[in-house]
Write a structure and sequence with these properties.
With 180 residues, the protein is mainly α.
C-alpha cells in the first residue's frame, strides 16, 4: 500500500490531499443520510458524532498506515490500542453517567480520536513537508485497494446470504442456528 512510489514525502503529500477530498465527500454523504433519517431521533443524535469522527479518523488511519509502512511498530500499536481503549472507556462512561443512548460510543470514539489526531497531525505534517502531490499514486493505490475492497464486499455478501440460501434449500423451509 503506502510508499509505493518509493518517495515517502510524495506519498504523504498525496495521501493528505486525498484525505481532504474524502473528508468532504464523507461529510456530504453524512448530510445526505440526515435527510433520510431526520425523523428518527436516535439517528439524528448520532450523526453529528459520526460527522466529527470522519475527519479525525482519517488523520489517524493515514498516520497508522505511515507507522506500519515505516515499521514503527510501537507507535502503531500504542496509537491503535489507545484509540480503542480510550474510546471504549469514555463511551462507556458517557453511556453510564450521561446516557446519550446510541451516540455514547461515538462520543467516546470522537474524544479518543481527537486526542490522538492532535498527536498524529504534527507527524503527518512533517512527513508531507516538501513532498509533491502525485497524480499517478492514487491510480496505483486504487489498483491495490480495489481488489481488496471487492473481496471484502464479496465476503460480506456471502456471509450474509448463507442463512437465506439454507432456508430456501432446506426441506422444512427454516434453518435454526445449530442445524448447520
Amino acid at each position: 500500500g503506502f510508499f509505493l512510489s518509493g518517495h515517502p514525502l510524495d506519498d504523504y503529500a498525496t495521501a493528505l490531499k486525498l484525505m481532504w477530498r474524502s473528508i468532504l465527500i464523507s461529510l456530504v454523504l453524512t448530510a445526505l443520510v440526515y435527510v433520510f433519517v431526520r425523523d428518527e431521533p436516535s439517528y439524528v443524535m448520532t450523526l453529528p458524532w459520526i460527522a466529527a469522527l470522519l475527519p479525525l479518523d482519517a488523520i489517524i488511519k493515514i498516520a497508522l498506515e505511515g507507522h506500519r509502512a515505516g515499521q514503527r511498530v510501537r507507535r502503531y500499536v500504542t496509537t491503535e490500542t489507545a484509540r480503542i481503549v480510550i474510546g471504549f472507556v469514555i463511551g462507556a462512561m458517557v453511556a453510564w453517567q450521561i446516557g446519550l443512548g446510541p451516540a455514547a460510543p461515538f462520543v467516546g470514539l470522537v474524544t479518543a480520536s481527537a486526542l490522538l489526531a492532535a498527536r498524529e497531525w504534527p507527524f503527518l505534517s512533517r512527513s508531507a513537508k516538501g513532498g509533491v502531490v502525485s497524480n499517478a499514486a492514487p491510480r496505483e493505490w486504487l489498483g491495490y485497494g480495489l481488489p481488496v475492497a471487492f473481496a471484502l464486499v464479496l465476503d460480506l455478501i456471502l456471509s450474509g446470504i448463507d442463512r437465506p440460501m439454507l432456508a430456501i434449500l432446506s426441506p422444512r423451509g427454516n434453518v435454526a442456528v445449530a442445524e448447520y
